[in-house]
């Protein structure tokens, strides 16, 4: 019995000990953290979503994000130079697509684009941060730009619209530290006054200049010729030689020149000292050379004038004085008819009367003189009872008349 009791007590204690071990193991297992398969699945889904978002992101979205990044702290009122003592260099290029001349008002209207380029030290970014984007397009009022105006504009209250206030801007980054290069090409419609001299009509050559300048002093903005290129004239596609004629003029050339306006005068010499630069405005003058194009001048004006002179000369060789008078009168009316057309086409002269007008006036004067000569001849020949005229008779009439008068005087003296 004693041994049986000991066996039962041992069995009961072993059961209790096994339960205690199971409970302790459960507590330890619950305290250990095992990787959750559901969390792994969620992380994989997040990576897939990020990759899908990166793949499906469009260029416009990257560009919009880039604009928000670079323009968030950008101010258009501050000149884009980290060293404000150094001026901003602005390259300018003329591109003419059309021109019109009003020779009565002596004005020139130019249409085209004004290419400008400068460095902005505040708008740089790292292309790797924005999917490799190096160039973006922005609006003109989003960036700092030089205030360019036309000095000799005749547009009056609309002079501020000669150069379009709306233009697209290209921003090309160098790096986040070095900044970016800005290119802007606004359109313009410039109307300027000119000094035209038509004294050499129809071979007159005139120059007309359009002057643009920057509002800022030379210590802030310096204008330069874009890559030292000459201005371009592109009036149409293809060969430009046959497309440079506008109205009555041919555009010979268009040149530009960099000048400096200081103390009320424009000079080619650049200022040297900082004091001179502070009082100097950089200006860019574009000069258009115009040569008159009168393709029908020889047939429409010169030929009738020469024919009139020939008729005037031939009138002295007609067989009858009355026929000569009628011929001269007809010639005179023809000259008056052509003179009216000639005067309507003739431009205003500034310095002197054109040589062609002098030629036409002399031709009319000779015609009128011939008329009076023939009238005198008719009166004189009526005394002799003849009404005929030949070239030889005309050439010998006056010498014989003076000779007979001199003989009569000598006889009277004897």
Offer a concise description of the structure.
The protein is of the alpha+beta class and about 425 residues long. Helix content is about 40%, strand content about 25%. Helix 5 runs antiparallel to helix 6, helix 5 packs parallel to helix 7 and helix 6 runs antiparallel to helix 7 (about 355-385).
What would your notes on this structure say?
With 414 residues, the protein is of the alpha+beta class. It folds into two domains: 67-292, Neurotransmitter-gated ion-channel ligand-binding domain (Acetylcholine Binding Protein, Chain: A, Distorted Sandwich), CATH 2.70.170; 297-401, Methane Monooxygenase Hydroxylase, Chain G, domain 1 (Up-down Bundle). It has helices spanning 2-31, 37-56, 59-71, 274-278, 297-314, 321-345, 355-384, 391-413, and strands at 88-102, 107-120, 135-139, 148-150, 168-175, 179-184, 187-193, 205-214, 221-225, 232-233, 245-246, 249-262, 265-267, 280-292. The strands form two sheets. Strands 1, 2, 3, 5, 6, 7, 9 and 10 form an eight-stranded mixed beta sheet that branches. Strands 4, 8, 11, 12, 13 and 14 form a six-stranded antiparallel beta sheet that branches. β1 (88-102) and β2 form a beta hairpin. α5 (297-314) runs parallel beside α7 (355-384). The protein is elongated, with a radius of gyration of 47 Å. Mean pLDDT is 79; it is low at 20-35 and 407-414.
């Amino acid at each position: 019995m004693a041994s049986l009791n000991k066996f039962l007590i041992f069995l009961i204690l072993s059961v209790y000990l096994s339960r205690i071990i199971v409970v302790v193991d459960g507590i330890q297992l619950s305290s250990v953290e095992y990787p959750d398969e559901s969390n792994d699945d969620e992380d994989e889904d997040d990576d897939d979503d990020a990759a899908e978002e990166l793949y499906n992101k469009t260029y416009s979205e990257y560009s919009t994000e880039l604009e928000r990044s670079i323009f968030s702290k950008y101010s258009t009122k501050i000149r884009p130079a980290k060293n404000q003592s150094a001026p901003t260099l602005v390259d300018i290029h003329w591109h003419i697509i059309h021109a019109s001349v009003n020779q009565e008002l002596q004005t020139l209207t130019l249409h085209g684009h004004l290419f400008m380029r400068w460095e902005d030290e505040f708008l740089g970014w790292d292309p790797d941060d924005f999917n490799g984007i190096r160039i973006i397009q922005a609006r003109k009022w989003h960036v700092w730009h030089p205030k360019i105006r036309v000095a000799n504009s005749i547009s009056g209250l609309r002079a501020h619209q000669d150069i379009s206030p709306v233009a697209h801007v290209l921003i090309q980054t160098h790096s986040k530290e070095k900044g970016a290069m800005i290119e802007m090409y606004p359109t313009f419609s410039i109307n300027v006054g000119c000094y035209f001299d038509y004294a050499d009509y129809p071979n007159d050559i005139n120059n007309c200049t359009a002057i643009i300048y920057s509002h800022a002093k030379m210590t802030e903005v310096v204008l330069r010729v874009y890559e030292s290129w000459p201005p371009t004239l592109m009036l149409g596609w293809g060969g430009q030689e046959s497309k440079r004629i506008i109205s009555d003029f041919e555009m010979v050339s268009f040149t530009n020149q960099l000048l400096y306006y200081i103390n009320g005068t424009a000079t080619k010499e650049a200022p040297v000292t900082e004091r001179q630069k502070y009082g100097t405005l950089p200006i860019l003058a574009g000069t258009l050379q115009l040569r008159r194009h009168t393709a029908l001048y020889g047939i429409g004006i010169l030929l009738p004038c020469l024919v009139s002179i020939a008729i005037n000369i031939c009138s002295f060789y007609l067989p009858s004085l009355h026929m000569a008078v009628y011929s001269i009168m007809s010639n005179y009316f023809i000259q008056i008819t052509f003179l009216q057309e000639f005067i309507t086409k003739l431009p205003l002269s500034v310095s002197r009367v054109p040589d062609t007008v002098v030629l036409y006036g002399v031709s009319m004067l000779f015609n009128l003189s011939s008329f009076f000569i023939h009238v005198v001849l008719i009166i004189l020949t009526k005394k002799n009872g003849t009404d005929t005229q030949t070239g030889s008779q005309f050439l010998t009439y006056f010498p014989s008349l003076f000779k007979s008068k001199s003989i009569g005087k000598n006889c009277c003296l004897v």
